Amino acid sequence: MKDVTTPAPTNLRQALLAATTRLREAGIEAPQREARLLAAHAARTDLAGLLRIDTLPAAAAETLDHILARRLRHEPMAYITGQAGFWTLDLEVSRHTLIPRGDSETLVEAVLDHLPDRNAPLRVLDIGTGTGCLMLAVLAEYPRASAIGTDLAPQAAALAARNATRNGLGARCTTVCCNWADAVTGPFDLVLSNPPYIPHEDLAGLMPDVVEHEPARALDGGEDGLVAYRALGNALPGLFAPGGIAVLELGIGQGEDVSAIMRAAGLEVTEIRPDLGGIGRALVVKK
Questions:
Q1: Is 180 part of any known ligand binding site?
Q2: Cα-Cα-Cα-Cα dihedral of 281, 88, 34, 47, to 10°?
Q3: Are 50 and 19 in contact (CB under 8 A)?
Q4: Superfamily in which the 84-286 domain is placed by CATH
Q5: Is 128 annotated as ligand-binding?
Q6: What is the per-residue pLDDT across 15-27, written as a single tens digit (0 to 9) for each?
Q7: 130 is in an annotated binding site
Q8: Known binder of ligand: residue 255?
Q9: CATH class name, domain 10-73
Q10: Strands 146-151 and 173-177, sheet pairing
Q11: Phi, psi (rounded to 5 degrees) for 8
Q12: 2 vs 245, which has greater pLDDT?
């Protein structure tokens, strides 16, 4: 009879040191923190809980080996854990959507300043909703608002719906699989969008975490990075309610070009708001 030996538990400190070394050699930023995040995920705890652990059970050690190998291939941490934080939300993420980024919170800040009445019954449209992060952050701040999120990918539309339910916002949110705003009708008090804006030839120069793992359709802005903004410029005038605004995410250095597109569509540009890095990130327009 074959002897089956149960794998021995693993000393956590040694596992963290080994993982940190391998992550550093792979060029992963903040390798020590990344190693701890991976270990916490493998142990089904958080960073605080990890402080109370000396030894990883065999199953957790095996999981750590597996997810460490994925991270060494530059798979983003959010795809490994299946979740990401945005604004006040805890979101599910998948390979069918971009990972929410802190820079995009600039759009939410702009909304709060331009629409200061938190009790307004806003009707919100999020074009290319992805995880739903933008519209759900707005719904969390405006308790009487309702939202429609559109996405060309059915998997993304379904994910946004799950995130709405996950954050207790499902009753005020609908997701639709369609191209831009083709399947919805206005008027809307607020239109949000984080469109694909990377010029096609620049995609290859992005970090491997991004270009090798995140969906190209959500990144590729065409030859000049502005294809999506032209589509939005055509659509927005017919979507606004009286006094309505749109808040659009911008790529680096795109403020002037996108502003020109919006003005040519008969819209007024009221603000280009910088993110914490000083990059013009949120374009606010109205009729």
A1: yes
A2: 160
A3: no
A4: Vaccinia Virus protein VP39 (3.40.50.150)
A5: yes
A6: 999 999 999 999 9
A7: yes
A8: no
A9: mainly alpha
A10: parallel
A11: -75, 150
A12: 245
